[in-house]
Amino acid sequence: MSTTDDAGANTTGANTTGGTGETRRLRRIEPAALAGVITHDITLFRRYWPSTSFSAVVEPTIYLLAFGWGFGSLVSVVAGYRYVEFLGTGVVASAVLFASAFASMFQTFVRRTYQKLYGAVLAAPVDVPEIVLGEALWIAAKAGVYGCAPLLVAIAFGLDPTPGMLVIPFVGFLTGLGFGLFGIWTSALVPSIDSFSYIISGVLTPLFLVAGTFFPVSELPGWARALSWANPLYHCVELVRDAAFGFAPLADLGHLGALGVFAGIMWLLAVRSMRRRLID
């Protein structure tokens, strides 16, 4: 009895390699398992990338063209910038939001509920944290790329390119990581796919409208300006504008920290909720 117990205790949380008696303790995130999840996403993306890319890139670009031409003809300068420059840098955050939160919410829900994909993946040596992180990293990578589309349109309309703009895809990646994890978390909370309407209308749309994309946050009442610091999209907008027009090191560190905290919190919530749905 004690021999069996000792053997179980010795093999718990460890992986024994063939015949050598060597053991390797499993890490919380196994690189091979994580790479498998990402590779699966890339393989699927090759099949449907035209439709996904079209919706993620064109919708924010339409916002830029419509508001840039419409309001731009009435308001020439906002916060010291030409309105098309102000708007073009702000819409980057909108593109990142559309490419991350919306995609992760519906994609994760469909794969978990209808396709039963994650149940099959868990039959392999892959755990819930690796599924969540793999999905979120791939979504964040796409968001970082798609977020550059409105910026290229703004450059075509006269926005001067600067070396700092090379940082913008990384800002989009970090923001997309947080919102991708947010989408995964909420996908495990809602009882049906129709319930996403509450999240889109009650959470994402207000965040989108008061992030400083279309007008300066400084024009809002004091209490609203204070609340803007809790809006991850606001920090994304500020970082993108600073990358385009000139960095403010101390302020930008604060914005980066806020996005990092947001991603960290969403990671904990996403893993916990998905584990509850898939295992518990």
From TrEMBL:
Residues 51-277 form the ABC transmembrane type-2 domain. The chain crosses the membrane at residues 62-84, 90-110, 131-159, 165-184, 196-217, 253-271. Pfam families: ABC2_membrane. It is found in: Cell membrane; Membrane. Its main location: membrane. Residues 1-23 are annotated as: Disordered. Residues 1-15 have a biased composition (Low complexity). It comes from the Bacteria. It is a multi-pass membrane protein. Keywords: Antibiotic resistance, Cell membrane, Membrane, Transmembrane, Transmembrane helix, Transport. Belongs to the ABC-2 integral membrane protein family. This is Transport permease protein. It comes from Protofrankia coriariae.
